Amino acid sequence: MKAEHIEQYKKAVAAVGAKKIKNIYLVACGGSKAFMNPSQYIFDLETDVPAAVYSSNEFVHRCPKGLGEGSVVITCSHSGNTPETVRATSLAREKGALTIAFSNLVDSPLWKAAEYPIHYDWTGCDFADSRYGMIYAVTFGILNVLAPCEKYEKAIATLDVLQACIDRAKELHSVRANKFGKDHKRDSLIYTMASGSNYGSAYSFAICLLMEMSWVNSNSIHSGEYFHGPFECTDYDVPFLLLKGIDQCRPLDERAENFCKKYSDRVTVIDAAEFDLHEVPEELKCYFAAVVTDYVLRDYAEALADHRGHPLTVRRYMWRMEY
Amino acid sequence: MKAEHIEQYKKAVAAVGAKKIKNIYLVACGGSKAFMNPSQYIFDLETDVPAAVYSSNEFVHRCPKGLGEGSVVITCSHSGNTPETVRATSLAREKGALTIAFSNLVDSPLWKAAEYPIHYDWTGCDFADSRYGMIYAVTFGILNVLAPCEKYEKAIATLDVLQACIDRAKELHSVRANKFGKDHKRDSLIYTMASGSNYGSAYSFAICLLMEMSWVNSNSIHSGEYFHGPFECTDYDVPFLLLKGIDQCRPLDERAENFCKKYSDRVTVIDAAEFDLHEVPEELKCYFAAVVTDYVLRDYAEALADHRGHPLTVRRYMWRMEY
């Protein structure tokens, strides 16, 4: 991890350590919101300090009563210009919360709104300096000040070795991603399915990679909820992309896979159990597999875009008009 | 409200009042999970005791660290037989949490698993004795023991007058519901959209009424998230059913409506501002409008089923096989 990134995240974590923390709010929109889900998952399992994810505008308009001086509010906007996320950050700061904001743009409105802004690099960078790397540093850093533990220090050390795991996983899936793109080029609807730490990735693949960037209809079905409604839409020709995790919720994904494959001939599975994560300590694999899956997913979207002749950069509304 | 229902909910609320409460978990599957969303919304706005909703099997497999003696766990299963919800209740009880379970079936496995089981009536009953009536009694009852307040007493009194509001809203929408059914009979995909206290209803309409009972593809889009991905799927022929609330999040729904109507000719809006809720105290309308919307939605699903010749009772997997 770059020196300035280490300095930024350590400053934020030290500030959290100096406070008595009552709750943690993770606030953002769309893909930036989805990328906070694994952190919420980790907090929920590792500490009894409650952590919740909100979409920024909902957070602004119906501010939770628990927001106050005992709160840590973590926000994110890639451009640092998402108005509702900037407002959420300002609101949190007004209420006395400790604010940490992630942005790719230094000195953006979001950067200025937060007490502890943190920069991250984008494509082509090492995992440790990426958005996921930086929020994992903050997540495990906060856990380590709440209840110091070797496991959390190991997690932070893992950030610097994860890129190798990601590279291998992408290589493992390169042919499969291309097959997915070819097999689904005519589909107007593709469902995603996941649970636990993978749910955020299923959500962002559905609403960002498919709906936004590919104009393909979708819904991110929770693997447990699948049996309480959505499974009735399963048929031989209905495509599903299932993210099978290796966290505590794997049994939910296995159950969904078993059923779904029986009644649909078009189920694609990205199984984290196949990843070679040998650099990751055993007890932390459950938390790191989700981000590896997220990187692999990008290649599935790229392949689909290529076969459909609809680049992921094309938009009809976003950035092209006021809304 | 029936005497035995009053007795059951008061017993549960008194038990909560006798404890020091640290957190509230609302745990169920599918439609039963969705119906807990308004309660989570109310708790979140009215108390700083954290309240979170979980799908039962996820709660069981990755039990949050905050679960313990200071927890109140509220579960629901209509049949009282949903295995993962029964397990979630037993697990919560083992961990020392106070357990309250809603079921239509007295002496069901869920009923026996919980310390405080609560019965509710089903179709044809007065609102106060329905599932929503009973959970609102518990929700405002808990708020009233946490911080006694006339507003919460008024909310409980409102349960007995809400049926009149529901009847009028259903009447107002009878022609519109039929038109919705006719206009959408050929659609293989209908999106729902909502925010705040209505989001649970948009979710259950999407995954239960549409996907499960009508075999129509869907996704419940959050009105705020719409602009961060899903809106790119909007086109002149893409159908949306928007629930426009009168709670704190109304501005999110208005923004989504304005955009969506500009680019789709097939937007149906159920606007709670049109409901005559004159029996409901002004400061509580924001919390009661959502349940009225939920009742109206049922008629939209019935009308769609009628025009499609696919009754809401038809299933291909549910109840017909092991899964």
Helical stretch count of chain A? 13
Q: What's the alpha carbon Rg of chain A, rounded to whole Å?
A: 19 Å
Measured as a percent range, the helix fraction of chain A is 40-55%
Order of helices and strands of chain A: HEHHEHEHEHEHHHHEHEEHEH
Order of strands, widest sheet of chain A: 2-1-3-4-5
Sequence stretches where pLDDT stays below 50 over 5 or more residues of chain A = none
Description:
Two copies of one chain form a homodimer. The first copy, chain A, has 323 residues and is of the alpha/beta class. Chain A contains 13 helices and nine strands. In chain A, strands 2-1-3-4-5 form a five-stranded parallel sheet, sandwiched between helices. In chain A, strands 7-6-8-9 form a four-stranded parallel sheet, sandwiched between helices. In chain A, strand 4 (98-103), helix 6 (109-113) and strand 5 (116-119) form a beta-alpha-beta unit. In chain A, helix 7 (131-146) packs antiparallel against helix 8 (150-158) and helix 11 (199-214) runs parallel beside helix 13. The longest helix of chain A is centred in the last third of the chain and has 24 residues, at 285-308. Chain A is globular, with a radius of gyration of 19 Å. At the A-B interface, helix 2, helix 3, helix 4, helix 11 and strand 7 of A face helix 2, helix 3, helix 4, helix 11 and strand 7 of B.
